[in-house]
Amino acid sequence: MISPPLRIALLYLLLSALWIVLSDRLLHQLVADPYLAERLATLREWTFVLASTVVLFLLLRRGLTATRRATNTLRERERNFRMLTETIATAIFLHRGGRLCFVNPKAIAYSGYTREELLTMDLWQLVSPEYQEMVKQRSVSRLIGAGGPVCYELNIITKQGEERWLEVTADSIEFEGAPVGLATAYDITERKRAEHQIHTLNSDLERRVIERTAELEAANAQLRFSQESIRELNVALQQRAEELQASVHEMEAFSYSVSHDLRAPLRAIQGFTQALQEDYAAQLDPAGQDFAQRIVAAASRMDILIQDLLAYSQLSRSELSPKPVSLSKIVAEATSQLEVQIAAHQAAISVIEPLPEVLGHRPTLVQVITNLLSNAIKFVAPGVAPQVRVWVESYGNGVRLWVEDNGIGIPAEHEERIFRVFERLHGIETYPGTGIGLAIVRKGMERMGGSAGVVSQEGKGSRFWIDLPEKGGG
């Protein structure tokens, strides 16, 4: 392909040759006078010089105009390029053979170096060591036209020593009349951090799943072991239930024996002693009469003790079916049973009405309240007339019945002890009794699904309470 300058030179040579040949022929044909021919030849030469000058002027002006236009276009493009690179949100690195020859503000911001520092560095000096060799090979491959990946991710080390991840797009362009390597880069550091966090979270989640799976397997194994243990316990429980049932039968047989076989000779002792007192009193000296009276009293106490033991035993094994009962009638019946004791101690029992209906086992509830009232009448200081007050208040989903006395009170450390079987705080000579009455109260309330307790202060009386579900309550 002929270049424009050579084409112009050949055209000028052709025109010059044609001018010389044609002008010579025309001059020889038209002019015969040698002198005139010489003068016309001189004029022809000056005309050729003038025409050549005009042609050269026109050609040079056209060439200079094209050059000026191309220069202006190039300058405009360069100005637009620089304006674009100054404002674009992408880092731009241009390099020749690796040495940076142009960077934009975003590249300066990403790297932390100044423009002057960057233009003295090779591109791969910015890249972390693990990616430097890859960047070198790919840059050389693109410059020689061998191609290679045009988009990849790598991390650079900033001037401050920080790691920054970039997504790089690489290419080759012409810059300032020579081919250069072009690298445009976006900052993806935050995305990489997020990906790392997600990876960490996924790894942690996988670890937790593995741990939870192991825990679940261990729990399942424990559950299987527990189920086997439960089956074994159920078998043992069944055996214990059968043994308990057998014990209940034995207890019932023992109770029958106590009720009949043990009390029969006791009644005989009481009968013979009373007959001795009645029929042979005159033959007994005072000491003999005292002994006979002691035998009757001891037999009577033994009979009461046996009755209380039987009552406590029956409470422990009987099935109690709570039914609606009137507390007013229960308290009245208990008071009626204690008429002799009330009169003997000149006791006053005050019942604050109304008393509600509750759910309870009537015989057991009568026995419980009888024991509480008897206890309140009995345990007073010598010479003090018992004052007993009975009332009810709402408590939780039921009612609480209070029995308050003006007795001797109970030390705080013994408030639970008094509800145990055979527990006595005072001698039998001072305050007679079997030591089972309050144990029957606690056991009876437990069997009816209630509870019993006491609030007391030594020397200032006691307030015993029992809790029962109210009829129609929760």
TrEMBL record:
EC main group: transferase
Catalytic activity, as annotated: ATP + protein L-histidine = ADP + protein N-phospho-L-histidine
CDD domains given in the database record: HisKA, PAS
Pfam families named in the record: HATPase_c, HisKA, PAS_9
Matches recorded under InterPro entries: BphY/WalK/GraS-like, HATPase_C_sf, HATPase_dom, His_kinase_dom, HisK_dim/P_dom, HisK_dim/P_sf, PAS, PAS-assoc_C
Gene Ontology MF: a single term: phosphorelay sensor kinase activity
Residue span(s) of domain PAS: 77-147
Segments forming domain Histidine kinase: 257-472
An annotated GO BP: osmosensory signaling via phosphorelay pathway
TM ranges: none
Cellular component aspect of the GO annotation: membrane
Protein name from the UniProt record: histidine kinase
